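Quick question, first post here. What does this chain look like in 3D?
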Amino acid sequence: MEDKIKIKSALVSVFHKDGLETILQLLNNQNVEVYSTGGTEAFIASLGYKVNRVEDLTSYPSILGGRVKTLHPKVFGGILNRSNNTTDQEELKQYEIPNFDLVIVDLYPFEATVASGAPHEQIIEKIDIGGISLIRAAAKNYADCLIVPSKNEYSFLQEILENGGESTLAQRKALSAKSFMVSSNYDTAIFNYFNQTENNTVFKASLHESKSLRYGENPHQKGTFYGNLNLVFDQLHGKEISYNNLLDIDAAIGVIADFNSKPTIAILKHNNACGLAERDSLTDAWNDALAGDPTSAFGGVLITNKEVDLATAEEINNLFYEVLIAPSFASDALELLKGKKNRVLLQQNEVALPKAQFRTVLNGVLHQDKDLKCDAIADMVTATKLAPTQEQLTDLVFASKICKHTKSNTIVFAKGKQLFASGVGQTSRVDALKQAVEKAKNFGFDLNGSVMASDAFFPFPDCVELADNAGIKAVIQPGGSIKDKLSIDYCNNNNMTMALTGTRHFKH
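> Answer (accepted):
Ran it through. Tokens below.
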């Protein structure tokens, strides 16, 4: 096994041709013997470079509509042979097999084809067989062969070619690792596509793009994001996004997705909405959202479902916050908001987000469907003698949406499509309710006539009694306790109305 190997013969089989011309020119300058087939061969020939047809090597044409081109012993023998194995080298001579010390592959775009919404038949034809086999073979034999598994590695190869065309063992091993990453990611994407209908109970995830973060949740923890943030939003301004920013951004995008009619602004802190309002104008939505908890809003993450105009930007600009997310920004508003250099401004793109979520637990992974259910008026069953008014129904739905996105145990108070207060993440629902009452009082809200939402049922009537004492007259909760009747009876005896949804919204 040699440390340095001079590139003398190359096999090139790629789908995307961009970036290849520079590589071909360098190969030509160094008199590298190039083999290819199909569209790649035609592309190389069109540039005026000499290219050997794989069909001439194998004595077989491309068959089955292009499904079989490179799958032949004369191709794979040239890749898998060991330079230090006498028998291997004798067999190369015996069967007239050329040695390949470089293989360049760029696979069929399977994931992109799936994402495009193409029909099943087209997707199947984008499952690369020959290409993936070439990658695996060359990567296995990194001792003697340099594998370039995608166009993303052309710069790596270009540097080698510009420096004499000799690859080192370390370089070959590095690209071998990249190759199995490409192979693994490709197979995972194919499996997950088929498993949409087959439902094999295994966990498969492969994200090959990554972004190193300054640190994790705390400075002493290392943090990395795996995925492509550019698909979700464009960063228009500000500092590098942190681990904690991303958690809040994810929560914010989840919240705003349930409010898609009138102008709405949500303010989040530690993954929970501390302010949220829906109004006829974005400026009014901002002012009423901020009123919900101006203390917690400091240093928070803001999100809106409408374009940020100058009038709203002028109001928002008075607050210190970490991140502002919007579908768009008016040019004058953007210019104003860019006045603070570290402030992160994100323009959210229309992109389908995963409908499943997972997290590590102990020595494994928990996987579940996202809670995409929004309680609606049609879902409600009035459990009390007194039915909710139309205004109360509207507010109950509004409060329930916020409750769904708030850490359990949680209680949410709302009125007139404005979040008044919430009790967040308490070990008892009573404590969550008391916290919400106290917050509402601190920020000057009159709870009389407001509504209450709970993420889970009331095991005892103490919660509705406390709510009643605070001025709450309408309640929404999933129901399901064996003692539901106690809470319902209290409401009936105290001129309150209660709606049951049958859907719990725990968020741990």
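Residues 377-500 form a domain with the Cytidine Deaminase; domain 2 fold (CATH 3.40.140.20).
The radius of gyration is 31 Å.
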